[in-house]
Amino acid sequence: MKKKIIGILLFFVGFILVLSVLNATARPGYGDTHSSIGCHPGTGVDIPTTSSTSIEVNISGSFQISITGTGPSGFSIVVLSADDNDLFTFNQSIVTDGGAGDLDSSSGTIRTVFSLTAPDTSKIYTIIIIVRDSASTPAVAFQRFSVNVGAATVELNVLGYIFDHLNYLLGGIAIVSLAIATILYQINREKYTRTHGILAGTSLILTTINIILIVPNAVATFDTIVQFMPLRLLHIILGIIGYTAAIVAFVAGLSGHRTRVPGFIALGCWGFNYIQGLIFIFAGVGL
User: Fold this and answer.
1) Which regions of 188-261 does DSSP assign to beta strands (E)?
2) Structural domain of residue 230, as residue ranges?
C-alpha cells in the first residue's frame, strides 16, 4: 500500500513539473475557440476577423480593430480584464447583437470596430477580444492580437517573466514541496520527520504569500471572475478547504500529533486548483 501511495505521489510531482515546463511555450490546439475544452459548451459562437492579429502602433497612438462575431440570439462581443486589455483604452467594452456599435443589421452576426489608444510604454502587448452567448455558463470564442507599441524589441527578461508568472510559480513550488514532504514521510517517517516539517511548512508559507498577492489582482479583475463564477467558486472553495487542512496539519505536527489525512486533503485540493488555474490561463481568462 505504501509503495502505491509513493508511486501516485511521484507521478503527481512529475505531472506538475511537466505542466510547469510546457506552460512556458505551449497553448492547447483549440485555435480561436476553447469550447471543446469542456468548461464552455459549444453553441456555434465564432469570431473571424478582418484585422491582422499583429499590430504596430506608436506610443500612446490610436488604432482600430475590426471584429466580426457570429452566434445565437443574445450573444455579444466583450472586452474583459484579461491579458493586457486594461492597459489600453477601448471606445466600447461590450457590443450586443443588434445593439449600439453593431454595424451589421442581420440577426446572428455582429460586425464592429474597436478604437483603441495604446499605453505610453514601449512594449509588446497582448489584447484578447471575446465573443460569448448569453448562457449562464457561456460558450466562448476569442481572438488575440499582438500589439507592438513603440517598435519594441523582444528581449529575454528573466526577472520580468518571474514577476509576470509569480502566482503560478509560487503555487507550483508549494505543491511540489508538499508532495515531496508527503513522499518522504511515507518512505520513512522517523528518518524524514524534520525534512517533512520543513518542506510542508515552506509550502504553507508560499501558499500564504500567494494568497496575499492574489487578492488585489482578484479584486481588480472581479468582472472577469463574475463571468466565470461557477468554476471560480469551485476554485475558491477548494482553495479554502486545502488551506484550512494545511493549517490543521501544520498545527498538529507542531504539537507532535501524527496525522496524514489533512496533508492529503491539502495536496489534493491545491493540485486540482493548480491544474484548473492552468486551464484558465490557456483559455485567456486567468488571473
Assistant:
1) none
2) 2-24+159-283
